[in-house]
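Worked example 2:
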Amino acid sequence: MLNGKRIVVVMPAYNAGKTLKRTFDEIPRDIVDDILLTDDKSADNTVELARTLGIKVFVHDKNLGYGGNQKTCYREALKAGADVVIMLHPDYQYPPKLIIPMAALLTSGMFDVVLGSRILGNKALKGGMPLYKYIANRALTFLENIIIKQKLSEYHTGYRAFSREVLLSLPLLENSNDFVFDNQILAQALYFGYRVGEITCPAHYEKDSSSINFSRSIIYGLGVLKTAISYMLGKLGLNRSRIFNTNGHRLSV
């Protein structure tokens, strides 16, 4: 626990057998109360390895997609009594040691959502982020900041921490089961007035790091722009998307 709050780390996994142990070994156990892994029907030894490591594992009978996997992550973390939920990819791209400052920013009451930004500190390219991904990241972030009137350094990091209140109050079940879920949940947090903070996060890109291909990246980018435009229209009172509807479906625990 940290500041009297229960900290749960969730890992949405798909074919993470080669990197899971390295990621798991660096999770700071002195503050983390529970570690959960949800497996999206991997074809490798992810599930067997996770169980050997003593991680609580939840397995999908069929592949639901990255967003669908996150929904399971957050639901099970809330059931486990989490006050703070930190999503850490098991591909060793993001440093687990940052769990401590991310959790501290939430348990101190300063923020409701904390992002590990690969852009702050100019570490992205040095860490191996492909140039086209870096350019796309910066371009999409620039456009989103203009459309939704925010000033985040990055909307696309997979390293995130959420308070229990945020995960229970947002209409997460209205979001996509695909990769754009990441963008939708962040847009929802901003739309409903939650405080979002960022910390510098040096990332490591290796051959075993998870990534989406170019065509899926294009689909993701279009989904990001659609989300931003829906956000703007909702704020203007012109049209309210289901993902920004206060009566939308939420996680139940």
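The beta strands are 7-13, 34-39, 56-59, 84-87, 113-117, 160-163, 196-200. The chain has a mean pLDDT of 95.
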